Amino acid sequence: MKQAAVLLRQTKSTIAEIANQVGYENQSKFGAAFRDILKITPAEYRKQNASEQAFIFLNLNCNKKVVK
Fold first, then answer.
1. Which helix (H) or strand (E) holds 54?
2. Is residue 65 exposed (0-12), middle (13-18) or buried (19+ Cβ within 10 Å)?
3. Distance of CA 66 to the CA centre of its chain
4. Does the 2-62 domain belong in CATH 1.10.10.60?
């Protein structure tokens, strides 16, 4: 599930594609297993972490000094 979490954060692959990449043929079984372990659905995990990644990206870019 660690690999699935990384893929959810760092790729735009669908949840079905990620499920297949980590060894699940069935997206619902993957979703249930993910939820059992992380207590959140894959879609919710992606949404929460995408907003955190965007915040970090914006924060880093706002703190850059412009050299003229």
1. helix 42-62
2. exposed
3. 31
4. yes
Distance CA 42, CA 29 (A): 12
- pTM here is 0.73
DSSP-assigned states of every residue in 3-49 = HHHHHHHH----HHHHHHHTT-S-HHHHHHHHHHHHSS-HHHHHHHH
pLDDT in tens, 31-41: 999 999 999 99
Tokens linked to 22 = 């980590």
Contact yes or no for 1/38 (Cβ under 8 A): yes
| pLDDT for 50 | 77
